[in-house]
Task: structure prediction
Amino acid sequence: MIICICEGVTDRDVRDAARRGVVKLSALTRSCGAGGDCGQCRPDLARMLREHRSTTRTPPTS
Ligand code: FES
Result:
């Protein structure tokens, strides 16, 4: 599904970027252009990055 219409970036593209270590929206924009035009997708992009961080957080070691 396309998340950023302006740049043609899909949810899969965003998840791939997050898996490669992209954490911040500004870094995502630099890597694939998402969110760099009209900005309407930015809340969704930020949410997706946040969700990725929350699901991949490494549990503390003892
Ligand atoms: S929809 Fe992403 S910048 Fe316009």
Summary: The beta strands are 2-4, 9-10. Helices lie at 11-19, 25-32, 42-56. The domain at 2-56 is CATH 1.10.10.1100 (Arc Repressor Mutant, subunit A).
